[in-house]
Amino acid sequence: MLSNTENLKCLIVEDDQFKMEGIRAHLNDIFHGNLEMIECHALASATALLASHAFDLAIIDMSIHSHEPKAGAGSPFPLSSGGLDVLFEIAHSGINTQCIILTQYPDIEIESLPIPVSAAKAEIREKFDIEVAGCVRYLENDNQWKNDIISILERL
After folding, report:
1. Do 133 and 99 form a contact (C-beta atoms < 8 A)?
2. Which has the closest alpha carbon to 15: 89, 80, 91?
3. Cα gap 18→14, rounded to integer Å
């Protein structure tokens, strides 16, 4: 698992509150509460957090909104590949943040093409030269995603 299990800092980018709660609970179980989690729901807030914080781990949903809903700020619009933009921000930060993609969809949109979750890690490396620790399919009534996250973390 991540070599420094004390003072770990994790960014979670997820716009579904139910899924966010599941991720938070699972990470607390894995790290026994020894993980500082910072949560955001949109690309703009993720970008702002990455500009001001260094993270050891990031759990990223690929389909997120452009920005957090705020009165007078206009309606946020969905970005099917907004999580890729978060990955680009992390890659260009120069900070070694381990990234796990967690999506409820069977495919991830990469350059307007649907790529199966199982092939997305290799596709992201090939197309963008970005290493992700893993890509996981989240299914609400199936705990396999939890096992997949543990398996990825054990390799880090």
Report:
1. yes
2. 80
3. 10
* Per-residue model confidence as pLDDT tens digits over 9-42: 999 999 999 999 999 999 999 998 889 999 999 9
> Of 76, 10, 68, which Cα lies nearest the Cα of 39?
10
- Residue keyed to tokens 């197309």: 127
pTM score: 0.91
129 closest CA partner among 84, 86, 91: 91
Cα 20 off chain centre by: 11
Distant-in-sequence, close-in-space partners of 25: CB < 8 Å, separation ≥ 6: none
CA nearest to 64, candidates 45, 49, 36, 37: 45
- Reading the block at residue 148, the tokens are 């997949």
